[in-house]
Write a structure and sequence with these properties.
Elements lengths: L1 H20 L9 E6 L3 E6 L8 E6 L11 H8 L4 H18 L11 H4 L10 H10 L10 H12 L12 H28 L5 H14 E3 L11 E3 L7 E2 L6 E4 L3 E5 L33 E4 L6 H8 L11 E3 L1 H5 L7 H12 L7 E3 L4 E2 L1 H10 L6 H8 L8 H30 L12 H19 L7
Helix pairs in contact: 3-8, 6-7, 7-9, 14-15
């Protein structure tokens, strides 16, 4: 434990020194990095912090993005790449060069002081489980080998490719596949450059790099036309763990990225720095954070399934954003060979209500999108104009017969979800489950149990039909 603490202190000290060299005012930082066996790395307050107070601020030059990566690297490799792909390639080359360096003490690479603080273990993310299940040891695979990429593509489109899917909710399976699909797409786009310029790279290095970018980037206005490309890696910032209820806020200007203890109480000019007297604008109150308290940050309004598939954990506190994806179940209610249903599907597509159907868990509530789709499903052709009035906000509900059919449909849906979630919870609870045989850790199994249990608890609160 002492060794780990010392290493953490050394990393933090070296990171602060580097940030100072990039003109960051680290003496004003109100946090320090902390390491523990249960929480990993985190940021903790080194003094009491009031509401709307600056916690740390990073200058533009300390952010790692496609504008601060060496221009020659971008020119040689990244002109046709997205920000995610370019940053992934940059980190992959870093890992390759570090692995093949003959003297790590003299090893140099742009942003290496920051990159050395990034976590090495990414094994809790389902994407890692998927790749290992299909391809085996990732450290021995050449990422320019098209045959390996094709094997992964085949697994994505094959039913029951992954044994551990039997322990996942359908929502988690769908989101895991979505992440895998994104990775496959980015890998395919990077493959030619890896083949031609970096033949010694390994798939494990590419996967690590992609997940670092996917899990740790923050939104930042770098001037890209595509909003998805306006991202950056932010040293120290990315050490804050997630909380779905955190009030900590990030404020970006073209020159800085600043973390505040809560939403600033002034309107900041996007072209100017916060005024020097900014902190005095907060009314005296109980400190937002006490000295020694962990500083958490909300990664976004994410369900626990999203947190697991994108970041490799589930929230340790009640998550107000938990939801169940029932898109497949709702879509299956429409008969794609029925002309009337086909017309309704097109109408839902044209009005933006086709697919993306979810049930909110806390409290249990069917999304408006579900109700809109079911009301159209049960409307006769003569009543479609009334349905149009409904989506235009002119009426809240349709006639009683339609609303009754919708409620019956929902009752059947929740009965299905109850049975399915109960069976999943029972399956995971079986003593015969051996995490290692599935390539999973005990923590991974715990996360899957949490997801299954939360879903069962949520759908069980739907009132049963009474006779």
């Amino acid at each position: 434990m002492t060794e780990g603490t010392d290493r953490t202190s050394k990393q933090w000290s070296e990171l602060l020194d580097w940030l100072e060299s990039e003109d960051a005012s680290t003496g004003e930082f109100k946090v320090a990095m902390h390491s523990s066996t249960d929480r990993g790395r985190s940021l903790v307050a080194i003094e009491d912090i009031e509401e709307a107070t600056k916690i740390l601020s990073l200058p533009r030059s300390a952010l790692l993005d496609t504008k601060t990566i060496p221009k020659q690297f971008i020119k040689n490799h990244c002109s046709e790449l997205t920000s995610t792909q370019a940053l992934t390639l940059f980190l992959t080359v870093y890992r390759l060069n570090r692995r093949t360096s003959k003297d790590l003490e003299k090893f140099e690479y742009p942003f290496s002081c920051y990159l050395s603080t990034l976590p090495a273990d990414i094994s809790q993310i389902p994407l890692v489980w998927q790749l290992r299940a299909v391809l085996g040891s990732l450290e021995e695979i050449d990422p320019s080998d098209l045959a390996q990429l094709d094997r992964l593509r085949t697994a994505l489109t094959t039913t029951n490719s992954f044994t551990f899917y039997q322990l996942m909710t359908t929502t988690t399976i769908k989101q895991s596949n979505d992440v895998l699909s994104r990775f496959i797409n980015d890998w395919a786009n990077l493959l030619p450059t890896l083949r031609d310029c970096y033949p010694d790279a390994r798939l494990g290095e590419l996967l690590w790099s992609w997940l670092i970018v996917n899990t740790r980037c923050v939104s930042f206005p770098i001037g890209a036309k595509n909003s998805a490309d306006n991202i950056a890696l932010a040293p120290a910032f990315d050490m804050a763990n997630h909380s779905p209820v955190s009030k900590v806020t990030a404020v970006a200007t073209p020159q800085t990225l600043t973390m505040y203890s809560s939403t600033p109480q002034v309107n900041l000019n996007a072209r100017a720095e916060p005024p020097p007297s900014y902190q005095s604008l907060a009314a005296p109150c109980q400190p937002r954070f006490m000295k020694g308290q962990e500083i958490t940050f909300s990664y976004g309004p994410h369900s626990n399934s999203t947190l697991l598939t994108e970041y490799g954990f589930v929230a340790s506190e009640p998550n107000p954003w938990d939801s169940i994806d029932v898109t497949d179940e709702i879509v299956a209610l429409f008969d794609h060979s029925n002309p009337t249903h086909i017309t309704k599907i097109e109408l839902l597509k044209n009005t933006g209500y086709w697919e993306d159907y979810t049930i909110q868990c806390n409290p249990l509530e069917s999304s408006h999108r579900i109700l809109v789709a079911l009301r159209l499903l049960h409307s006769s052709e003569e009543k479609i104009s009334e349905w149009q009035d409904h989506i235009d906000g002119l009426v809240d509900e349709l006639e009683g017969e339609i609303e009754q059919a919708v409620q019956c449909c929902l009752a059947e849906l929740f009965a299905l979800l109850k049975a399915r979630s109960r069976a999943l919870v029972e399956s995971i609870a079986r003593p015969a489950i051996d995490p290692s045989s599935l390539g999973l850790s005990a923590y991974a199994i715990m996360c899957l149990k949490t997801l299954a249990s939360n879903e069962m608890t949520a759908v069980s609160s739907y009132p049963s039909e009474t006779t």
